[in-house]
Structures are given as C-alpha cells and as structure tokens.
Amino acid sequence: MAEHAPSMDAVPGAAPTTAPVALPDAPADAADGLAPDAVDAARPRRSDATRAAILAAARDRFAADGYERATIRAIARDAAIDPSMVMRYYGNKAGLFAAASEIEVHAPDLTHYPRDEAGARLVRHFVERWECDETLTAMMRVGVTNEAGAERMRGVFAEQIKPVLAAVCPVPGEAPTRAALIASQILGMALCRYVLHIPPAVDLSRDELIAWLAPTVQRYLTAEHP
C-alpha cells in the first residue's frame, strides 16, 4: 500500500512530517496561452491594434461631436477599451486629437514632371490618397464640423502643399492664393465624393474624375494670369 504523510489533524499540535511541496510558478504569460518568445512578438501587435482602434474611434467621435464635446470616456467606449488606456497612450484629449489628426500627404515634387502634366499628377495623387487613406476622409469630416479640425487641415495645406506649388508657380508670391484655389477643387470634390457621397461624384471613375479636375488645377498651377 502507498504510504501517506500524516495529516495535521491526526496528531493535535504535531508539526507536519513532510514539507509542503513547492509548486513552480506559472509562466507570467501562461494566461495568454503563448510561449514567452511568442508573447514578445504579440505584445507590439496588440499595442498597435489598440492604438489603431483608439485613433479610429477618436476621428469618428471628433467628427460627430466636435473637439469640445468629444470626451475620452466616449472615445474609449467606442473603441471598446478602458479610458485609462487612452490616457496611457496619448496623455489627454489634446494629445489624442494631435495624433488622430496627424496627416502626411506626401505631395509629389512637380518639378520632376513636364510642366503641362503638373495638374493631372497632383489630382491623381490626391484622388489615390483619398481612396486608400481613411485618415484623410475622417479629418475631412472633422474639418467641416469644428474649428480645431479646420485649423489642422489649414495647417496641412500651409505646411505641405504650398511649398510644392511654389516650385512651379510662375508668380511665387501668388502661391498661397493658388493653393487656396486648388484646395477648393481637391477638397471640394473629396467632400462631395467621399463624405457627402453625392451620386454623380461617386459614380465617376478615377480617370474621369482626374480628366475633369486636372485642367482647372493645371490653370491654377501654371497660368500667368486668371
């Protein structure tokens, strides 16, 4: 028969005759069901996914409520996470808005193309960006609903678009005016096509859209006079 260690209750006051068996600590990542090496790789992916969810929820909430009325709590609820996670990654609402509205348009250097192709190149670039980058569409919605978003969009054009236009503009001093006119075409079509979904604008193919817009943008870029 197998021998059993006597119970503490068998002899009152007696010390146990065998030391309790020490169980090895469970791996810290056991709850995840992952080996340590796999966890090291998974953590950055989870962090990236969390940040992406927060930023997506923030853009939608800022667009719907405006900067002043949007709250960290509402954004966290939309992202299905705890509000403390939003604070952990972005500090406060101002920091979150700055991250959510960060845009890099990667405007092409128009000096690398024939002068008479500049308008078509610029329009094609922006149409392709609108169709593959949801951040631009989200910030368009934010820009038309609150001043903070509008100011961010103005900053993007001032910092990233005007220098590109100035390089091909026949009258460099007119670059700000010409940039505003070009914005009226590119942002105006983006609003109609990607935000308001006006049927004729939505139904145009990419090439048709570029063919209609490019001549006007070309004139704004390179015409000597209005």
Task: Describe the protein in words.
InterPro entries: Homeodomain-like_sf, HTH-type_TetR-like_transc_reg, HTH_TetR, Tet_transcr_reg_TetR-rel_C_sf, TetR_C_16. It holds the Pfam family TetR_N. Residues 48-108 form the HTH tetR-type domain. This is Putative TetR family transcriptional regulator. Keywords: DNA-binding. The chain is mostly helical. The chain has two domains: 46-100, Orthogonal Bundle (Arc Repressor Mutant, subunit A), CATH 1.10.10.60; 117-222, no CATH class. It has ten helices and no strands. Helix 1 (36-69) packs parallel to helix 6 (134-143), helix 2 packs across helix 3 (83-90) and helix 3 (83-90) crosses helix 4 (93-100). The radius of gyration is 29 Å and the shape is elongated. Mean pLDDT is 80; it is low at 1-34 and 36-41.
Secondary structure layout:
Elements: H1 36-69, H2 72-79, H3 83-90, H4 93-100, H5 118-132, H6 134-143, H7 147-166, H8 175-195, H9 199-203, H10 206-222
Helix pairs in contact: 1-2, 1-4, 1-6, 2-3, 3-4, 5-10, 6-7, 7-8, 8-10
Highlighted features:
single chain, 226 residues, mainly alpha, Arc Repressor Mutant, subunit A, 2 domains, disordered N terminus, TetR_C_16, Homeodomain-like_sf, DNA-binding transcription factor activity
Measured by DSSP, the beta-strand proportion falls in under 5%
DSSP helix fraction: 55-70%
Total helical elements: 10
Whole-number radius of gyration?
Answer: 29 Å
Number of strands: 0
Low-confidence residue ranges = 1-34, 36-41
Q: Determine the mean pLDDT.
A: 80
Distance linking N and C termini:
106 Å
Number of domains: 2
Instruction: Write down the secondary-structure element order.
Output: HHHHHHHHHH
- SS content category: mainly alpha
